[in-house]
Amino acid sequence: MKDMTSTLPTYEDMLAAHERIRPYIHRTPVLTSSYLNDLTGAELFFKCENFQKAGAFKVRGASNAVFGLSDEMASKGVATHSSGNHALSLSYAAGRRGIPCHVVMPRTAPQAKKDAVRGYGGIITECEPSTTSREAVFAEVEAETGAEFVHPYNDPRVIAGQGTCSKELMEQTDGLDAVIAPIGGGGMVSGTCLTLSTLAPEVEIYAAEPEQADDAYRSFKAGHIIADDAPNTIADGLKVPLKENTWHFVSNHVTDILTASEDEIVAAMKLTWQRMKIVMEASCAPPLATILKNPDVFRGKRVGVIITGGNVDLDKLPWVVGY
Amino acid sequence: MKDMTSTLPTYEDMLAAHERIRPYIHRTPVLTSSYLNDLTGAELFFKCENFQKAGAFKVRGASNAVFGLSDEMASKGVATHSSGNHALSLSYAAGRRGIPCHVVMPRTAPQAKKDAVRGYGGIITECEPSTTSREAVFAEVEAETGAEFVHPYNDPRVIAGQGTCSKELMEQTDGLDAVIAPIGGGGMVSGTCLTLSTLAPEVEIYAAEPEQADDAYRSFKAGHIIADDAPNTIADGLKVPLKENTWHFVSNHVTDILTASEDEIVAAMKLTWQRMKIVMEASCAPPLATILKNPDVFRGKRVGVIITGGNVDLDKLPWVVGY
Questions:
Q1: pLDDT of residue A168
Q2: What is the CATH topology of the domain spanning A4-57+155-321?
Q3: Any chain A CB within 8 A of the CB of B273?
Q4: Which of A59, A314, A316, A317 is the mutation pick for testing B, counting most B CBs within 10 A?
């Protein structure tokens, strides 16, 4: 296996990614809400990746990885381990290129997620719900298929792809003072850092995280990666730890990391629906939740807010069924 | 009371409306879905008025009426009868101008709707749920306040305002073969006719209606207005009958009116959520429902689909709680 994690992506990689993936992604809209502006005292620009192909920003990085492969490499397909939006997005992108996508997923993952991956043509191999089992099963799949591993967030091709989101956001607004995105493994935040540190280095970059999975916050304060074993939060896309490439961007370019409680996350999710008619995943709600919680940080600023995905089960809205 | 219904709006009125209301509305995005394109064999461009201020296209017409008033007329406020999006939108627009908005609403209207109107500053006077009572109570309110009546859809200022939606849609796409919108009283369809009959007369205009409230369909076939007494459909914004001004546009410019069953409406609403992450009102779903039902009409065409509003109660989605 080629060690793709040894190279950091460059600004030029991000520009090349944008050209490469343009046919396979939506240029998602930027929406505003005067109600939320009044409430926060800031001017908020919501970049709506919930309307992205496959329902999340992850398709940017996945498409960049898939369409950047040589024909020879592509012929053996791609592989990853994920039970979330990266699995969906990589399956989508591989399907568009007509190559196989192997996904290792815990057998305990929700049936709906397995169905969705299969719906995009992904080939699932189940593992036990432990890191040991996942790594062993993934190694087998990789050895058998020769497929190219695309890590959900630490892969430089993925980071370069995620960086295209902030490029569009800057093109769609007349200048920003700050951008805020949720942080789990740090793929979107790293892409944001990659793009803005060259394109608009004056723009502050904030990351927002659940209190109950605040490993990035603690890493940022400690100055080295801290990985939690099994955090528990409704924002289930944000449970994963930082890795060396995302840590590089986070530690060098992020202004601050802010956290929100479960209640604050659900309240922000509900407020966004009520006022903007956008149903976001719980994992997308920490940015608005932390803006509401820290008005002094954002007041008077023009703030880009990245809404990362919309793959929520409408039959299980947390303010309806509890959480 | 000045009879505003005696004058039909012109294309220049629509252009003036767009300049007038620009500060008070969103230029809503146009979204696409390759899944729905594959499913229908058409190329669909969804104009997302569900993200409009106050949650619906109605704010276009309401703002045009409110901001077109002289200071003298405006000083006495505006008045209407509506329990739906027009009441919300007129209250919003009046609030932005700082004038009163009087709304006559049946006492049986849902509390949530009354709360929403009051939330935008509207002053509610309740009537009994009958046309006789509504007209009597409205006449009293009008006489007492001297407020300017803004009819929900037959008012030429309202029709001119609604026409700005298709103007934007044409600007946001590279040409269309057809546009389709839901039809109740015909305000949006009339505005669409007003704009396209001058701007792009080659574009076909379709209207979509629930089978269970198909008075516009029957009017169109009969060649004169047919008004139903009390139709019953989940698409509750589409129960009202055509009036003389909207009939003028519908009878002269609409290509055809298509209908959909309740089940087809709910299925289209659910499909739009699943595939586009857009929660639309049931009243917005007939266009997609009729496109799916009549593939031969739309196959191979570039079709603008107006999603008229998003004010749905997420706790009462019809595919979850029944309908």
A1: 98
A2: Rossmann fold (3.40.50)
A3: yes
A4: A314
Task: Identify all chain A residues contacting B320, using CB atoms and an 8 Å cutoff.
Answer: 314-315
Report percent pLDDT > 90 for chain B: 80
Q: Say whether pLDDT at A289 is over 60.
A: yes
| Most distant CA pair in chain B, distance | 57
Q: Which two tokens stand for residue B51?
A: 């993200």
Look at residues B60, B49, B92 and name the one whose alpha carbon lies nearest to residue B280: B49
pLDDT in tens, A116-133: 899 999 999 999 988 889
Query: Would you list the DSSP string of B187-234?
Result: HHHHHHHHHHHHH-TTSEEEEEEEGGG-HHHHHHHHTS----SS---S
Asked if this assembly's ipTM is beyond 0.90, the reply is: no
SS3 content of chain A, % helix, strand, coil (to 5): 55, 15, 30
Compute the average pLDDT of residues A275-297: 94
> For residue A6, what pLDDT band results from cuts at 50, 70 and 90?
low
Element (H, E) at A102: strand A101-106
Share of chain A above pLDDT 70, in %: 98
Q: Where in chain A is the domain with CATH 3.40.50.1100?
A: 4-57+155-321, 59-149
**CATH 3.40.50.1100 describes domain A59-149:** yes
Supply the pLDDT for residue B223: 97
Count of other CB atoms within 10 angstroms of residue B219 = 22
Give the β-pairing of A302-307 and A43-48: parallel
When scoring A88, A275, A277 by the number of chain B Cβ atoms within 10 A, the one with the most, hence best to mutate, is A277
Report CA dihedral (A227, A230, A233, A238) to the nearest 10 degrees.
40
Q: Which of B314, B317, B319, B321 to mutate to test the interface with A (most CBs of A within 10 A)?
A: B314
- Label residue A126 exposed, middle or buried (CB < 10 Å: 0-12, 13-18, 19+): middle
* A273 close contact with B: CB closer than 8 A: yes
List, in order, residues 6 or more apart from B232 with CB less than 8 Å away.
Answer: B212, B213, B239
Domain with CATH 3.40.50.1100 in chain B: 4-56+155-321, 59-149
Task: Give B14-77 as a DSSP string.
Answer: HHHHHHHHGGGS----EE--HHHHHHHSSEEEEEEGGGSGGGBTHHHHHHHHHHTS-HHHHHT-
pLDDT tens digits, B69-121: 999 999 999 999 987 899 999 999 999 999 999 999 999 888 888 998 999 99
Q: Is the pLDDT of residue B239 over 50?
A: yes
Task: Give kind and range of the element (H or E) at residue B262.
Answer: helix B262-276
DSSP element (H, E) containing A5: none
pLDDT single digits (tens) A182-214:
999 999 999 999 999 999 999 999 999 999 999
What are the strands of the beta sheet with A101-106, ordered from one edge? A123-127, A101-106, A78-81, A148-149
Task: Tell me whether residues B31 and A26 touch, CB distance under 8 A.
Answer: yes
Question: Measured between CB atoms, does A276 come within 8 Å of chain B?
Answer: yes
pLDDT confidence band for B1 (50 / 70 / 90): very low
A29 and chain B: CB distance < 8 Å anywhere?
Answer: yes
**Judging by beta carbons within 10 Å of its beta carbon (0-12, 13-18, 19+), is residue B313 exposed, middle or buried?**
exposed
Domain spanning B4-56+155-321: which CATH class is it, in words? alpha beta
